[in-house]
Amino acid sequence: MSGSSGSWRDAYKGMSSDNIKGLVLAISSSLFIGASFIVKKKGLKRAGASGLRAGSGGYSYLLEPLWWVGMITMIVGEIANFAAYAFAPAILVTPLGALSIIISAALAHIILHEKLHTFGLLGCVLCVVGSITIVLHAPQEQEMDSVLQVWDLATEPAFLLYAAAVVGAAIVLIVQFIPLYGQSHVMVYIGVCSLVGSLSVMSVKALGIALKLTFSGMNQLVYPQTWVFTLIVLTCIITQMNYLNKALDTFNTAVVSPIYYVMFTSLTILASVIMFKDWDRQDGTQIVTELCGFVTILSGTFLLHKTKDMVDGSSSSSGNLVIRLPKHMEDSNGFEQEGIPLTLRRQECTKSPRPARHLIITQDGPEAV
Question: What are the structural domain ranges in the chain?
């Protein structure tokens, strides 16, 4: 017991002031980002009521003040997250991103009245557990004393191949898959955001190192590599925000938020492993543990994706085929469809009639319910 308490005291004493600053900044970042999902979606819904929805290619949300409040909130959260990486290692900062999922889901339940199936909630838990497992067993970051060191790592063949694959995959999704499946498959929009996001984080790390060294007296702004990283960061963030808006406007926030977090975290860790060669400094046990974390994340993502339209007590024993109407469609009464099954609102249905939300294909033909 005395040895155990001594180790806890040593661990506490070993936490530097920079790590404490990074911890506070990371928690603040999760609070702001989690709330921004909800505020932005409220703004998107208001904008969609008076103009072309973002999910259909519209940009009327740019004229909606509430959307800008959410956008500013997200920017503040991202700045705090950026600063956290400059002060503390990724192993301390990254797991706290899971807090944004919990905050977003809780606010979506309270404000937007969005719900998840029980297995969807289990999927959220698996996603968070898997992400934390990976990060807790990740190696410490390398110490850098110049942005040129990061540039050398970024221009090695392995990472250049990864970057080319990411850019190619993102272009294929945007050109080929989004026009066909963007309104029905949440993974399409989130895939673009996550792929581009993995490159943005690598550039953010490089830019954070450059700024931290500059503020400490070693000016890194004289190197053109610093400005190249800055340009990459701006390009990636604009792309992420565009397709994240489309995802939020088309699908349930409680589904978009955790899936985005899981895919973004997974690809970011993969990019970090390739660029910074993290696994070269780890033993087999640590690597296997991280791979188990990946499997846990994939399991959670599968549950979230497959159960996003299910509710407790639902049954398909009748053998009828249920077709989910797109979220952006409106019925003849002008009621905006939210893409949520009718049974999710069965308590509200007892108070006032609702328009048709599903089509059931039977042997006698289509029947609206």
Answer: 16-114, 140-281
